[in-house]
């Protein structure tokens, strides 16, 4: 699918296109969403650039992801989507940047692409060239990642409060259980996976901007270069923030697993004490349950109450001992 973004009445507006139809005049950005080979070939021929296929875009060598050819920059970034739906997916996006146009090739719906359309209407003066659109797109990617990190940090704060809450500790002391802690462990695992993909996106965008700045003389003005370097600084700060969040997740995971062990030990402790309390009465009952013919107590009138009393006393004495030692 081809989307053209052309300047009309001083602002960028999106229109859909088809293979073989003329590119609208004033087009600055062409977005190829899951393009067919014919669509990629048509745009490449119309603009005089090469549009790589999907196999070339997903290559992992840096020389295949970042290069300059024919006066245009070919930049591939790995971006993540689906964080809000808790289904993070990484996908590769190629930017073909030239002085008079920008072409993006992607194979997934990415939210920050849709956000740009509103931005075009709000700030038309900041999107009057391919350079400005590319930098604005990079900024939108970084802003979106920052929003996702803020969302994850709030969730981590809530989990931390729930795990270390005094109310929860009191409830666990009355009725030990692991269900809520197991849920926390699963949520931490999902956050760790999403955070890894967000860090990958940040580092990928950092490499894209660093490489594009090296060739800034081809297509970037001084204000655009300043904005690009500002985004790079934001990326570095977010990478540090991600490292802090990884440490927090590791601490929460370790603490949660420790609490699960404590609650498991509490359960085992209850069973162990119960076994000790019932062991002496069981011994007494076993002795008087033997079927020997000559047992003096069998003919004793007080034999039954004495045996029951022994069982009760033999259960009370260990209980009193545990209480005195502070084990209960």
TrEMBL record:
<feature type="transmembrane region" description="Helical">
    <location>
        <begin position="267"/>
        <end position="290"/>
    </location>
</feature>
<protein>
    <submittedName>
        <fullName>Magnesium transporter CorA family protein</fullName>
    </submittedName>
</protein>
<dbReference type="InterPro" id="IPR050829">
    <property type="entry name" value="CorA_MIT"/>
</dbReference>
<keyword id="KW-0812">Transmembrane</keyword>
<comment type="similarity">
    <text>Belongs to the CorA metal ion transporter (MIT) (TC 1.A.35) family.</text>
</comment>
<dbReference type="Pfam" id="PF01544">
    <property type="entry name" value="CorA"/>
</dbReference>
<dbReference type="InterPro" id="IPR045863">
    <property type="entry name" value="CorA_TM1_TM2"/>
</dbReference>
<keyword id="KW-1133">Transmembrane helix</keyword>
<dbReference type="InterPro" id="IPR045861">
    <property type="entry name" value="CorA_cytoplasmic_dom"/>
</dbReference>
<feature type="transmembrane region" description="Helical">
    <location>
        <begin position="302"/>
        <end position="322"/>
    </location>
</feature>
<keyword id="KW-0472">Membrane</keyword>
<dbReference type="InterPro" id="IPR002523">
    <property type="entry name" value="MgTranspt_CorA/ZnTranspt_ZntB"/>
</dbReference>
């Amino acid at each position: 699918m081809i989307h053209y973004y052309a300047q009309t009445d001083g602002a960028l507006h999106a229109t859909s296109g088809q293979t073989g139809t003329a590119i609208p005049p004033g087009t600055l950005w062409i977005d190829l969403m899951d393009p067919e080979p014919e669509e990629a070939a048509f745009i490449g021929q119309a603009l005089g650039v090469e549009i790589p296929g999907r196999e070339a875009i997903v290559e992992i060598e840096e020389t295949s992801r970042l290069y300059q050819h024919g006066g245009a920059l070919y930049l591939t970034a790995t971006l993540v989507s689906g964080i809000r739906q808790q289904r993070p997916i990484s996908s590769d996006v190629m930017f073909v940047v030239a002085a008079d146009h920008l072409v993006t090739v992607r194979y997934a719906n990415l939210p920050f692409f849709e956000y740009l359309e509103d931005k075009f209407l709000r700030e038309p003066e900041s999107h009057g060239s391919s350079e400005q659109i590319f930098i604005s797109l990079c900024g939108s990617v970084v802003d979106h990642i920052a929003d996702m990190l803020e969302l994850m940090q709030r969730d981590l704060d809530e989990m931390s409060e729930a795990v270390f809450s005094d109310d929860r500790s009191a409830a666990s002391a009355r009725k030990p259980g692991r269900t809520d802690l197991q849920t926390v462990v699963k949520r931490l695992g999902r956050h760790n996976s999403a955070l890894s993909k967000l860090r990958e996106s940040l580092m990928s965008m950092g490499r894209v901007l660093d490489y594009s700045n090296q060739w800034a003389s081809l297509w970037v003005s001084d204000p655009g270069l300043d904005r690009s370097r500002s985004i790079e600084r934001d990326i570095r700060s977010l990478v540090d923030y991600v490292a802090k969040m990884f440490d927090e997740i590791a601490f929460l995971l370790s603490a949660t697993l420790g609490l699960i062990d404590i609650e498991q030990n509490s359960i085992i402790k209850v069973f162990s004490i119960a076994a000790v309390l019932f062991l002496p009465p069981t011994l007494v009952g076993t002795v008087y349950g033997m079927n020997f013919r000559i047992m003096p107590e069998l003919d004793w009138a007080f034999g039954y109450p004495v045996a029951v009393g022994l069982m009760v006393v033999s259960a009370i004495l260990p209980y009193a001992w545990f209480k005195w030692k502070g084990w209960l």
